[in-house]
């Protein structure tokens, strides 16, 4: 069974299409402005109340050095499951959930310098787009986790 399929969630960030394995996603929330925390790492936008607990909200735009998050009426927060911890990431738009043949996922080339290559699980060729498949497990380093959770 060489050509298996993976289910991905495609979303927008910095005007580009990104994706993650749907297994890493717990829920997609409408955007709500996080409460800002003093002395938080620069990529932590703040926290929100989520299911009677505090959910840290990460700005991937800041984490990837894209600058500030783009204001958009379509912004969403994707709740990411990571071991026993959860965190939210801000995205500009959520496009679709799609089954993709794993043969379409290629390793990212060395020229991928805008985002640290450890965050990228691969590149997916879909119709006219190239979608960057993120490995959300790698978004937060253990040092980042110590600062956030």
UniProtKB/TrEMBL annotation:
Signal peptide: none annotated. InterPro entries: CheW (IPR039315), CheW-like_dom_sf (IPR036061), CheW-lke_dom (IPR002545). SMART domains: CheW. Residues 5-145 form the CheW-like domain. Gene3D superfamilies: CheA-289, Domain 4, SH3 Domains. It comes from the Bacteria. SUPFAM superfamilies: CheW-like. This is Chemotaxis protein CheW. It comes from Clostridium gelidum.
């Amino acid at each position: 069974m060489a050509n298996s399929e993976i289910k991905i969630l495609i979303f927008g960030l910095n005007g580009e299409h990104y994706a993650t394995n749907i297994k890493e996603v717990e829920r997609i929330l409408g955007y709500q402005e996080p409460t800002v925390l003093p002395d938080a790492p620069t990529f932590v936008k703040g926290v929100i109340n989520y299911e009677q607990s505090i959910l840290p909200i990460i700005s991937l735009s800041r984490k990837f050095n894209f600058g500030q998050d783009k204001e958009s009426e379509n912004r969403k927060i994707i709740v990411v499951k990571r071991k026993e911890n959860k965190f939210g990431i801000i995205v500009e738009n959520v496009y679709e959930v799609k089954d993709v043949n794993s043969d379409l996922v290629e390793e990212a080339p060395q020229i991928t310098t805008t985002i640290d290559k450890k965050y990228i699980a691969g590149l997916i060729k879909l119709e006219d787009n190239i979608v960057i498949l993120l490995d959300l497990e790698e978004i937060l380093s253990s040092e980042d986790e110590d600062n956030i959770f």
